[in-house]
Amino acid sequence: MRNYKVLFVCLGNICRSPAGEGILKRMIKEQKLDNYISVDSAGTSGYHDGELPDSRMRHHGSRRGYKFDSISRRFTRNDFDDFDVILAMDDSNYHNIMRLAPDLDSERKVYRMVEFSQKYNHDHIPDPYYSGADGFELVLDLLEDACEGLLNRIKEGEL
Ligand code: 4NP
Predict the structure, then answer these.
(1) From ligand 1's centre to the CA of 153, what distance in Å?
(2) Hey, what's the torsion of the CAs at 132, 137, 140, 146, to 10 degrees?
(3) What residues contact 78, with CB distance under 8 A and at least 6 apart?
(4) Are 75 and 100 in contact (CB under 8 A)?
């Protein structure tokens, strides 16, 4: 299997993308794929640079056994050189990432996370920042499902 570097991207890099990162990392560990796949996350805004994930996201994650502890950083143009697969949580993230893409090869690395959904039919991963507990639980449900789909596609060599 070839090596992959995967980057999750949302707006603040404190809710959705650190959750995606933590969920995929656990699946990779469980399936002993650590030597092949590495994972990181970033935000398009830089609003929360240097911060841990939102305490609500950490709380909901910990109830499912996840530890979300990455430090928020802004997405940059250099990330196109450093990563093979770049995952946008919603259309706004997608367009903000694409605006920075220097060439066609870079654009081809960018996907909407929901493209990998299996049992859900949402057209984006909704921003939970101004939502209640339900919003955070929905993000985790959608991300667990799509991370599984993503990992299957990677294992099948389709990305
Ligand atoms: P995220 O959620 O993009 O999933 O990390 C948000 C976090 C912070 C803000 C918006 C969304 N904010 O406006 O500060």
Answers:
(1) 28
(2) -100
(3) none
(4) yes
